[in-house]
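[09:14] KT: can someone run the structure on this one? pasting the chain below
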Amino acid sequence: MADSLHTELRAHPTVDDWRPDSVMSGYQQATVHLGRDDEGEITATFVRKDPDKLTFSERLRRTRYHLRGHRLAVMYVHGWNDYFYRRHESEYWESLGIAFYSVDLRKFGRSLHDGQTPGYIEDLHAYAAEFNALRDLIVEEQGEQVRILLMAHSQGGLSSVLWVNSEQPHHIEAVALDSPWLELQGNRMFRILSTPVVQAFRLGGGKTVMPMRDPGFYGRCIARETGGDWDYLEHPICDPNLFVPRAGWMQAIFNAQAEVAAHLDIRIPVLVCTSDKTMLQPTWDEEMRNADSVLDITAIRQASLNLGDVVTLATIRGGLHDLSLSRPTARRQYFRIVTAWSALMAWRRVIPLKHVQKALDAVAAAGYTAEDREDATTAQTASEAGSADTSTSADTTTASSAADSTAADPAESVASEAAGPQSARVGL
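[09:31] RB: done, structure tokens below
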């Protein structure tokens, strides 16, 4: 294993000043210098909305929380072959007066440098360096009274629970996980049986590529051009095909999952959200647009019970692997549940119902809507009908409209009572 990384992290990482973000207009990024390894300098990147770009209502809502003695913040961690680009997620929380910060972990997104192996790491505990640095920055900017909700997706969820368990970080009040990769597809026994295979590949070096084919179905569910709701994947920072599973990284995942299986001792509330259905298969099915086509939700939910004493499980019907990118009805339900739960368990503050309803309307309308797809399909059909003189029939597909949920909003009870105590490898 001659190519295993030799990492030297700084005892006290330094963070550059905020500057305009290279990905999203109206946002800022700050580089944190973590140290060096065999591939050069290691950096992470923090992202936030430019404070000067906050709307009047967003400023007012922040101020109201401050006057009541508390500041609220979200700290977001992405998944595998991912980085922060989910503007709609940040805008949702900011619209409620809650400061939103995210991190591009080392060797991902904004933090990936020439000559580095994309996404490669040999111990998920090492991410504690950027987690601690971001937590400290949030406390510095928002004040000692800040209450932070840690949100994390997929591999980011696995890394985050290790950090919370081992360091019990201050100011982190609760953890909300979006389809966290807590267990291998299948179950714990399948991971155990697969471990010798991974170790055999590691004999050729930690960066040995694993023969794990990705059919690309998840990316197809997300991308607007293939029937999804989002154009996010049309503007990648780097070639997503460079992110391939490697033996050292896979062993790090297995080691972390083994820690979860042996039971963690997280002493703050944890929310685990998953889809209601898994579809792991070698052929495409349109129902994948309403399911997790990346991870096994049953394995996730079973492993969740090993995280700590207070674990809440929530099912999002029709949710994708990244629930925040689901179709409007499922997306709205996901944000509604996380909002209601975090208001009670993380912030213990009233979040006015009228603000929540307006924010839910906006996040449900984000992306490429069903009406947009229907208009585009109608236009395409008309064009094809005009040009196909020999055609006797046309087979058109119109995306079904996403009717909004009319169920009672869980945030209503929270608002009244909570003041008491391109590749489909994207986002794994």
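[09:33] KT: thanks! DSSP finds twelve helices and ten strands in the chain.
[09:34] RB: yep, looked fine to me
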